[in-house]
What we know:
It is found in: Cell inner membrane. The protein contains eleven helices and three strands; from the N terminus they run ααβαααααββαααα.
Amino acid sequence: MKALARWVALLLLAALGLQLFFIGRIAAMAWVAPQSTTFQRSEAWALWRSPGGLRWRQQWVPYTQISDHLKRAVLASEDDGFVHHDGVEWSAIEKARARNAKAEARATAQRPPKIRGGSTITQQLAKNLLLSGERTLLRKGQELVLAFALEHLLSKQRILEIYLNSVEWGAGVFGAEAAAQHYYRKSAAQLAPAEAARLAVMLPAPKHYEKQPGSPYLAQRARTILARMPSAQLP
């Protein structure tokens, strides 16, 4: 029993140490931009091992040098309640769960279910910054803890700034500046509303839409986001 108690104590101490490490890294991001994320390092490794080798585009730009059109487009597409929630929107998670259950029920061998998430921008950032891509209850619980930490230690503007500078927009394309240069040959500050809307719509599956820029869904969804952008509230 004593040996078991010691192992339990060691596991608890290790878990506490990991949480303190995560929180320390998040707190430092109030002043220091993250050099890379866990997701980016995983993608870099996969690209390096691919036949084409490592192709990488990323350039950090301050919040003020990212077009407000892109900020509004991303919020309208990914998280229209961003400025109001505390990192998690429970109602969105429940709606996503219900939609996914219906999609799985209608799925066939030829038409697999289209799974949708209910994650906020804060949750997406927490996952990409510090966590693996595995889908387990433990990982999801850790994501929620880190989302709350991000909301309490960083401003909404800083969270959005880090997100826009680190999110994937194609194979080896990370951040708003790289995406603007890659797709439109201009800076992130110069993006027009329609261009911003198309970039925002790409976010759930950027590699897919990078290969299919003429996708009818991409064009239709971009028009929808363009119409919603004026009502998106910036932090």
